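Q: Can I borrow your eye for a moment on a structure tokenisation matter? Would you mind producing a protein record, from residues through to fold? Write it directly below this note and I will take it from there.
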Amino acid sequence: MTRLPIRIWCFPRQRLLIWRAAAAIAITATVTLALMGGAYAACSPAADNSPNPPPGTTITCSGVTTDQNGTNGYGTGNQTGIVINVDSGASVTGSVNSGINIGNATVSNSGSITGATNGVFSQNDVTVTNNTGATITGTVLSGIGSNNGSVTVVNSGTITGNANVGVFAFVNATVTNNAGATIAGDLGVNSGYSAVGNVTNAGNIIGTSYGFIAYGTGVVSNAAGGLISGG
């Protein structure tokens, strides 16, 4: 008779201990996965050495993305016709080359894009919207640059080419710099040979050497309160 109570309470207690152990494992697994998700956040869908993702794809960058494509934050220079959205609070960094490296694309930045060479670099045409509070930085070359094409920029944040050009276009540069926004570099804005540089400014375009250079035709509309300056 004395064994009956022991048998009655034994199995529930074992179940309770097993449940507690299982719950602890589940919580640990959840926390581990959450931490892993934050540590390995990336731009999605991923880019590769082929033209993938294909034209028409929208890429979203959230969290911290560093060198997702070798030494580029995102892209291999082969991607064309894509849209890249960098979320608020997100960062995309290329530790040796560019923050974003594409063939041609439309980029909307609400976070930060940083490259050791260029912030955003395009082989051909590129359109960039840099939103309020967002930053695009190229340490050695340009904040935003095009190797063979035109650049269209609407800036409400900060674009910096620390040692070279804030915004560089091999062909035409069309730049709208809104009130409170800044574009800075050794050259603020630079459009290419036999091209058109069209700048509408209500913010600050600052060059250590020149604020704006157009090797072809230059058109400037500087609003009240806007500053374009060079050394």
Remarks:
- The radius of gyration is 25 Å.
- The longest helix spans residues 3-39.
- Residues 42-230 form one domain.
- Confidence is low (pLDDT under 50) at residues 1-40.
